[in-house]
Write a structure and sequence with these properties.
The protein has 87 residues and is of the alpha+beta class. It contains two helices and six strands. Strands 2-3-1-4 form a four-stranded antiparallel sheet, with helices on one face. Strands 5-6 form a two-stranded antiparallel sheet. A hairpin with a 2-residue loop joins strand 2 and strand 3.
């Protein structure tokens, strides 16, 4: 599956999420991660998130069966750049 995961958490918890998500996905922006994951890795990711999640933490999961079903573009500076979220 191709997954885009965004989080909105208290500032003191951002490093925790950044480290956790970096094990599975590629950082696209400070609180946005994306990449291809097999189902087993996705289940492990969700399990890890459940272990650290607190009530105020907000997470958004956007997934598709594969990256060919969605167009992903980054606009950096003054141009679009290639998607670098391949894991």
């Amino acid at each position: 599956m191709y997954l885009v995961l965004c989080y909105d958490v208290p500032a003191k918890r951002t490093v925790l999420y950044h480290k956790l998500l970096s094990r599975y996905l590629v950082a696209m922006q400070e609180s946005v991660f994306a990449g291809d994951l097999p189902e087993s890795a996705f289940r492990k990711l969700v399990r890890d998130i459940r272990r650290v999640r607190e009530h105020a933490d907000k997470l958004l999961f956007i997934s598709t069966e594969n990256r060919h079903n969605v167009a992903v573009k980054q606009y950096l500076g003054d141009q679009f750049v290639p998607d670098t979220s391949h894991t």
